[in-house]
Amino acid sequence: MSGDRLMARALRAAAAILLGHGGSQALRLASNLILTRLLFPEAFGIMAIVSVVTVGLAMFSDVGVGPSISQSKRGDEQVFLDTAWTIQVIRGLLLCGITGILALPVANFYGEPALAMYLPVAGLSLAIAGFNPTRIETAHRHLLLGRVTSLDLLSQVIGVTFMVVLAYLMQSVWALVLGGLVAPLAKLVLTSVFLPGKANRFKWERPAAQELMHFGKWIFLSTACYFMTSQGDKAILGRFLTLEILGIYNIGFFLANFPAGIGHVLVNRLLIPLYREKPPTESRENFDRIGRMRLVMTVSIMSAMLVMAYSGPWIVGLLYDPRYTMSGAIIVGVALGLLPHVIGMSYDQSALAAGDSRTFFIYTSCRAFLGIAFILIGVTTYGLVGALIGMGASHIVSHPVLIWLARRHGAHDMRHDLIASCVALVAGAGAVWLHWDALMLLPTEVVRGF
After folding, report:
1. What are the boundaries of each domain within the chain?
2. Roughly how many angstroms between the first and final C-alpha of the chain, as a whole number?
3. Counting Cβ atoms within 10 Å, is residue 140 exposed (0-12), middle (13-18) or buried (19+)?
4. 3-class DSSP assignment, residue 40
5. Other CB atoms closer than 10 Å to residue 445's CB: what's the count?
6. Tens digit of pLDDT for each residue in 6-23?
7. How far is 331 from 448, CA to CA, in rounded Å?
8. What does R_g of the chain's alpha carbons equal in angstroms?
9. Rounded distance, CA 143 to CA 15, Å?
10. Using CA atoms, how far apart are residues 409 and 276, in angstroms rounded to an integer?
């Protein structure tokens, strides 16, 4: 892990990501355990909807500033970085305003008047994040993530601490809303002060803006699709289930998605630099080198997902009070539904590393459309159980499109996919057999519809 070689930097970056994201999720879990005892399940259902709106707006407007800096030949030029930062700031301010405009329609759609008050305040976090310095993306570009990870983790410690204190004092959803502003504010201050490099200034260089927009137009569409993949389940279930069940589902999803979340961060931060500097089409050695890293990631993440699938009900019984018992079965269903996604997780970044954001968009759009369609069909026919089945089925059906993308950039490994699929099928069947009774207690009817 020493030296300045690419793989050494990649290993150090992976260690930093694992430490940072693992620590972040551990903090979330600890705060979650405390907050579930101070608040009520409906509070987490309301915040799930708030998150759908704020995260959705952020994704629907993402112009790919981070990936652009990571893959561009001009990614280290200050004028390019300042132009990217200017775009980022404008976007954040616009998103904050749009959140306030959408507050009342969203509250009416979900039948929860309080959302009209919570959403405008929660939207301030989008404006704050827009001012984050591009020095964060420069560190990611060069796989120098130690200090970035430390500062990010510290900002989350500050945010979680404030949120827990507010929940104890207020015992209201407002504690979650106001507490959610502290972490992004702390991150902005800490990264602006302690990351090395020049401070950003408002600047608009036309060639830089054109390059960012040209690359980002497909990222914009891709992240809009990714929103439907990552948040579409909550957006749909929030309309069909009670806030209490939605809150319980949100907790189960958080726990089950823990390993996949780490994998997603690793893939996003590591593989664009690796694919860029060691293209698998360039030599067999490059293909094998990335293949070894892919194998390690797949084995690690899939093993962790199966641990969650086999032990979900026990984990919930140990950590939560009886109000959240249903979350155990949800962990099983979500973990199994995400296994097909884990198998192909490392492929899509090969397109972005090559500057092929169009092919990346084609894949993400197919995945998003299938995900929404399958979850919607599942929940309307068989309630929450149907939604969980639909989630897994959508990943399976969209995998051939991912293979097409990977083959275009020389990244596909058929042997890897076949072995991982067989392991997932056999081990997943065992988890279903073990927890069959718990899974059958999940709601199969809907409370309301569109």
Report:
1. 1-227, 231-450
2. 54
3. buried
4. coil
5. 10
6. 556 566 666 666 676 677
7. 24
8. 21
9. 11
10. 11
* pTM for this entry: 0.74
Q: How far apart are CA 434 and CA 30, in angstroms?
A: 28
CA distance 30 to 36: 10
Tokens of 368: 């998003």
Mean pLDDT, all residues of the chain = 84
Residue type, 340: P
| Nearest CA-CA partner of 300 in 102, 4, 15, 10 | 15
For residue 449, the 8-state DSSP code is -
Which one-letter DSSP state was computed for residue 322?
G
Q: How many residues does the chain have?
A: 450
Number of H helices, E strands in the chain: 19, 0
324-343 residues labelled b (16+ CB within 10 A) or e (exposed): bebbbbbbbbbbbbbbbbbb
- For residue 426, the tally of other CB atoms under 10 A from its CB is 9
Structure tokens at 299: 């084995």
For residue 371, the number of C-alpha atoms closer than 13 Å in the C-beta half-sphere is 24
- State the pLDDT confidence band at 327, using cuts at 50, 70 and 90: very high
Helix, strand and coil content of the chain, in percent to the nearest 5, comes to: 80, 0, 20
Which pair of tokens denotes residue 309?
Answer: 């699938």
Three-state secondary-structure class, residue 370 = helix
Between 372 and 139, name the one with better pLDDT. 372
| pLDDT per residue as tens digits for the range 146-157 | 778 888 889 989
Q: Quickly count: other Cβ atoms within 10 Å of residue 169's Cβ.
A: 10
* Confidence tier at 187 by pLDDT (50, 70, 90): very high
